[in-house]
Amino acid sequence: MSAADTSFDAVRRRLALALKDTGPVSAPRPLEIQPRGVLDAPTIKPADVIEDTTLRAHTVSGDMSPKFDAFLDGAQLTLVARWQGVVPLVFGTVSAAIRQRRDRRLTTWGAPIVHRALYAPMSQLDAGTTKALYDAGVDVVDTLEKRAPESGHPFAFQELAYKAVLGDRERIETELAGRWIERERGLLYVDGGISADARVAKTASIVGVIKSHQTLYADGDALGTVLGLAVGQRSSVLRVESRRAKVASWYLRVADAAGRDPFWGLVRVEVALDDTALTARADDVSRWILAERLPLALPDARWDKMAYGIHDAEEYLKAIQ
Known about the structure:
The chain is of the alpha/beta class. The chain is built from 7 helices and 13 strands.
């Protein structure tokens, strides 16, 4: 077993040997940790409209030609490597890649980022376990360094680890977007928001497309307008302010929701905040996104919201994790 092997199975075997398990590690590969209370609670925030006086629907028309040069996506895999008493020792892999489109073919731009680590509440472990973690051949992250669990429940420690892995995924996605900004001038489609980093949020060539809607930036009649958008319609442009950066944003329906739930085919777009030519900018970017509806991102269950370039990036990341 090479010390350079940082795969989940290799690290799990090293931990078993270091902690003197009485038999071989024969347990099957565990299921991936699923977030319990990690996701934000469903929230509605008032629409801060900056294009119209009130939020309304705009029909997007004109040339629907693909304009994006590349697609950025990230992935994570979070598994319990072993239980040390009541404490889970979590193995996390985060990865990010950009798939660049040239001559209608997608290839990997630059070098993808892959990072593996063990995540554990270090103050809850004895000296022998701590040493085994640091000798396992991968980085070690103390999940209690920045936050405390809500309780001593083992699942609370799992959720801390999940949050830490999620934070590392966001970090490497931002790092890869920064590399693109430094080296390229083409349009980059980012799966998710762009407000995590001020430089990314201010770059006009970066477009973030968000598929989930835990937070809705519309209330009252505005919410009805957003959920009632027809395919090929967008909402008025909004100002969305996070704790990190302000961006311009709008909702866009990319697939027909007739007969389905009101979130089917609904995405939220984020671009650099520029108060000039808002309508033209929103229409242009919406056309570029609508042009990515074909080919369909099947067999992914999220094909109604997912561009094929992002689907391709996800498949690539699965292969290298």
